[in-house]
Structures are given as C-alpha cells and as structure tokens.
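Components:
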Amino acid sequence: MPRTTPYRWLKPAVFVGALAPITAIGFAAWRDQLGANPISQAMNQLGLVTLIFLVAALACTPLKIFAGWTWPIRLRRMLGLWAFFYAALHVTTYTVLDQSLEWRAIYVDIIKRKFIFVGFAAFVTLIPLAITSTNGAVKRLGFARWKQLHRLAYLAPALGVIHFVWRVKKDVTEPVAYGVILALFLGARIVGQLKTSAQTAR
Amino acid sequence: MPKLGNPPPSREITTESLYLRRREFLRDSLLFTATAAGVGSGLLWLMGGGRASQRQGTSSPTSAVAGAPSIPLNVTKHEDYGLDEAWTSEASVTSYNNFYEFGTDKSDPAAYAETLRPRPWTITIDGEVAKPAVIDIDQLIQRFPLEERVYRMRCVEAWSMVIPWVGFSLGELLKQVEPTSLARYVSFTTLLDPQQMPQEKANLLDWPYVEGLRIDEAMHPLTILAVGLYGKVLPNQNGAPLRLVVPWKYGFKGIKSIVKITLTGSEPRSTWNLAAPNEYGFYANVNPAVDHPRWSQATERRIGELRRRPTLPFNGYAEQVADLYKGMDLMRYF
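Structure:
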C-alpha cells in the first residue's frame, strides 16, 4: 500500500487557522464588540494580520536553512495568498468604509501622506505576486523570471513595516518588533546564501 | 450462560492495513486540529498586540470604572451651552480614550485606570498669582456652581465626539487666585505617580504630562475644568478628578488628572509639542486647513457615525474664539 504524503494535514490545518482573524473580526463586528470606532479597529487589525502573514511567508526559507525543515516551504504560497486576502480587505475597509469611496480624498491621501503612499505601494506590490502565484504562471514566466519577480515578497513586508511605523502616534514598539523579525529573516537568507556559495567554492 | 453472538462474517473483518490507517487517520486528525488551533490562536494573540486579551474594544456600559460608583453630580443646566447635535454614547465616551499613562491602546484606560485614586486629591495653584493656593478637590467643586456643557471634542487623530461635560469655568477659578500683571500663560501638570499611573514607568512621553494655554484662552468662557460627564463624577479613564476642556482645540490639550496649575510669564511646555514639535503645535487649534504631517485634518469621523464629516474651523467655535487669534498666522502657530 502506498504511504500517504507526510504532513498531509498541514496545509488544510493552516488554512483553517488562517480563517481565525476574519472570523474574529466578523464576529466582533456583528456583536458590536469592535469598540467605539469599529472601522478604525477593523482596519488596523486587518492591516496587522496582513503583515503577520507577509512575515510568516518569509520565515519558511530561514527555517529550511537553519533547521533543515522543508515542510514550511509548502506553506509559503498559501501564506502569501492569505496576506493578499487580508491586504485586500484592509484596503477595501479603507476605501469603502473609512473614506466612503471619495476617490478624490483617497487620491490626495495617497499622494500627500507618505504612510498611506507606502501602504498603497505595499498593496500594489502584492498584486502581481498574487496573480503569478499559480504553477502555470511559473511555467509561463520561466522559473528564473518568476523568482526575480517574487523577490517583491521581501519589499512588501518592508513597506508594510514602514507604513506601520509612520502610522502610530508614539509607541513604535510593535511595528519595530515586526521590523526586527523581518530583518532577522532577511539576514538569515543572506547568511544562508553565503554559506552555500562558500560550500560551492570549496 | 450468556450466548455469544454469531461471529461476524470474515468479509466484514477490517483488513490489517486499513486498521493501521485508522490510527494514522486519528493521528492526522489530531495534528490537524492542534495545528489549526495553534495557528488560529497565535494569530489572534498577535492581533491583540501580543497581550492577554481579557478585554475587547468594549462597548459595554461598565464604563464608570471598575469599583468606582457612578456618583451623580449636582448640575445647573445652562441652555446657552447646549448643542444641537446627538451626544456620543456614554459607553463610547468612557471606553475610547487616549490616556497614555495607562497604555497607548484606546481601550487601555478603561481597562487599567482603576489604579488611579482620585480622592483625596489636592490641586496646587501657584506662579504669577497674588493668592497661591492648595485646594482639596471636593472643596474646589463646592466653590463653583457646576454646569453642564455639551461640547464637540475633536481628537487630533481625526475622530470626534459630542460630550456632556460637567464642570466650571477655569476663568472663575483663576480670578479667585488673582493673576499678577506678569501672568501671560497658564501651565497644567498631571499627576506623576507610577504607582497610580503604571505607564509613567515607560519612557514613552516625558512624564508628567504637561499642557498650557495663553491666559486669554484660559480666561475664555468656553474653557472649563471638568469634574464629570453625563451628569456623573468623571470616570478615571476620562481624567478624574479634574481635567481641562478647551473645545476649540484638539483633544490632547485637554490635560487629565490635574494636580498643578501654574501661571507663568513665558510660554509653558506642552507634552506632545515636546515629543513631536513638527506635528503638534502649542496652540493646537482645530483647523481643517492645517493638516497633520501624516494625515488630513479636513474631515473627521464622529464616533458612532459611518461617514466622515467635514471638520469645522475652531471645531465649530470660530464665532466665539476666532478673535483671540486675530492677526496671527495660524499656519505657523498651528
């Protein structure tokens, strides 16, 4: 009898877990538990969840390099798509609920407010990544070009962290914490690459 | 002797491989559930800023602070200070606060301000005055008829409320201590006591919180010291027992839990101005034409409403206060 793939429960489990934020926000909204300013609360939480998924997606490679685990790589696409899902909800909350689709005000916000500009840029960055997330897209683009394009996955969370830092009034602890984790993950990759090239040189 | 049932026919006996797969299935179900729960709760924990989430941004009316009873105040109504706008719910007014001495989240003050002890409480009035004084809060309250003042409150973060404050005119108090001819500004200081205000241990702002007004602003009849809201004693999270309310200025000018009022000859320091001088001016008059460097001040969300509304110059009090700033460049003195 053929053995079933190892960790076949993994992807569905992470998928279900990833539904928790939207479920919690939706439930809290329905029960009127989002506080006095529910739009702002929902928007902030959706933005934060986006950043969590973006950073989590970048954790996969360091885990492979340093722990030798390959299974997180299988989650990477899904984590990225969840990030896009939450980013889209975050942007929709901003444009529809916060700004009531006042496109002029939104346009002025984007060009005048650097924190909104950076957040908008992060979202725009995610769009081509989501579109080319299929196996077919990898084939059409060719792996090398696809890989190059998907380097944007480093840019998006970095922009997200800047967006977060510029957004808060005073206490930057939380955004800086995400920035540090992100820097560690990026640093891990560089160290990993140096290690590989040192090995090949030998 | 009890009879054993017929043994099942052999075709119904589970094959060994299937029997083993049953274990695998059980194990996988368990791992699935544990992983899903772990991922889900981890995300929710991070959404709560990595803190225990015993509280939500609550809209429950347990507002008047855990422990402290809602003490009604004896209020003289003043119809001139009514406002033809819907009041923001008491639950929102008392659960959505910026009071960084108890945390930066707007739900923190309501959750944690019970450590503040608003009685006994004394207020020191000193500086350029003929009659400096140290006054007990309860004596202070009895000196003046308490009035209800329904004011718009516009936060610098572009949200607003309509709040029925209970208080008395700051100008009346200042007259009693007789400012000298050198008094040109009024400086206010919040309690400095990390035991009562735990976040004063954090290096977030330069504690204690200080604020200031020009003396003509302080003497203006709209400017009050509030001791209550919604007809009841001020809840801790709203700045008990005594706070400043200057309705034509951004909310951060409304310094909370005041222990000291000093009249000075030079412009006093103010906390947010010190923290970020390019973002928060000394005057901090509500002005839709002067944006915060990071966000627009043209519109605001009234708490409880969906659509934004335009922000009014001087928060709608231009008729009463614009004269104070005649000839001043409000873009510069923002």
